Amino acid sequence: PLVPLESHPRLLRALHRAGIDVPSTSQWELQGKDHPAIEPLLRYKKMSRLLTANGWAWLDEWVHEGRYRPVYVPGGVVTGRWASSGGGALQIPRQLRPALRADPGWRLVSADVSQLEPRVLAAMSADPAMIAAGAGRDLYSGIVEAGIVASRQEAKIGVLGALYGGTTGDSGRVVPRLRRNFPAAMALVDGAAATGERGGTVTTWLGRSSPAVEESWTLGQRSANQPEASAGQQQAARRSARDRGRFTRNFVVQGTAAEWALSWMAALRLRLARFVPVPQQHAAAPSGPVFSRRAHLAFFLHDEVIVHAPAEQAAAAADAIRESADAAGRLLFPGSPIDFPLDLRISERSAED
């Protein structure tokens, strides 16, 4: 019999009838079950989510005149990262990336920074060992080569734990090794966390401060330190302080990384503005009157840019992207040996090998 896959109760009953003993129809429950129905069901659920979020309705609202036109909110995140208020510009599924394509005779020049936030931390702290781990190579692989951990995955988990305050599991096991080997870098984020736990504010490299704590947070901490405070109050206050510490730990690095990325984008726009416009017959009309004849920034996502450039200027655009990344590093961290290597591609379609 046919099973309505969008009806969770009826789908769950059908799974039970087939001998698949799961408490719900979530992918986390279904993964790992050995039954021929599981793989196509998971594939269907994945495609169904894609249709709901980025299907025909999304296409009609946000794609017109040959362009994807989301709404960006510069500085929309508290750390200074950009956000979006429509179109999901910062959450484009990887399956849709090949649908982003250049106009005839033009190319997409895509670049993303390898391990931006860990490199920013290394530069902020001037930690020589961490800078050396990423010099001209994948930083996580450099940590492995230094003998600190056995695998790249361990290195990544440990560094992300250091940035986001991970204290359990693999992260909790690796972070102490990072403290021994990268003392300056770890002291910077540990210090930011300690400041947050005390209710203080921290600042990014260019001086943007984290939001101050709310009065209710301060009152909760004070109440928990009174002699008559209950065990529950004390536990809640400790948890609230740890949460605040994790926020300030990450704020200093993510906020500075956002400053680097915006400096990169600004430098890139200045360089692209110097390119000679192509003749009218080679214009990319959907890009509008300002950009139809010149290379221009078409997409930005935290640590990634995509430039739409005439094919004959694609290599020059790639050089401009690299030069701009170097300029952003020099602007924020003058004299530092830190580098910001890019994964750079020139193609007719986004995500195309």
Topology record:
Layout: H1 8-17, H2 27-30, H3 38-54, H4 56-62, E1 63-64, E2 67-68, E3 71-73, E4 83-86, E5 106-113, H5 116-125, H6 128-133, H7 139-145, H8 152-164, H9 169-181, H10 183-197, H11 215-224, H12 231-273, H13 288-291, E6 296-301, E7 304-310, H14 314-332, E8 342-347
Helix pairs in contact: 3-4, 5-10, 5-12, 7-8, 8-9, 9-10, 10-12, 11-12, 12-14
Describe this structure in words.
- The radius of gyration is 24 Å and the shape is globular.
- The protein has 353 residues and is α+β, with helices and mostly antiparallel strands.
- It folds into three domains: 54 residues, no CATH class; 110 residues, Alpha-Beta Plaits, CATH 3.30.70; 138 residues, DNA polymerase, domain 1 (Orthogonal Bundle).
- The model has no long low-confidence stretch (mean pLDDT 93).
- It has 14 helices and eight strands.
- Helix content is 50%, strand content 11%.
